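Design request, tokens follow.
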């Protein structure tokens, strides 16, 4: 029985190590996703600004013609 208990405790320890590693990896990936979402929001905002600038330049060109 003692051997079986030690074997099961060892399996539990290995499982906990794997679980903790996966939890840490998951947190890292979530943080990366959050950063990418922020970058995407900023890029959309910049692109909208460029769209307005292009529209203004286009209207100026039409007025010149």
């Amino acid at each position: 029985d003692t051997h079986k208990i030690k074997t099961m405790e060892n399996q539990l320890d290995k499982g906990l190590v794997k679980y903790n590693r996966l939890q840490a990896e998951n947190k890292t990936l979530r943080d990366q996703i959050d950063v990418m979402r922020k970058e995407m929001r900023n890029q959309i905002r910049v692109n909208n600004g460029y769209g307005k600038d292009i529209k203004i330049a286009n209207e100026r060109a039409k007025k010149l013609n």
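Comment from the thread starter after seeing the answer: thanks! The mean pLDDT is 96.
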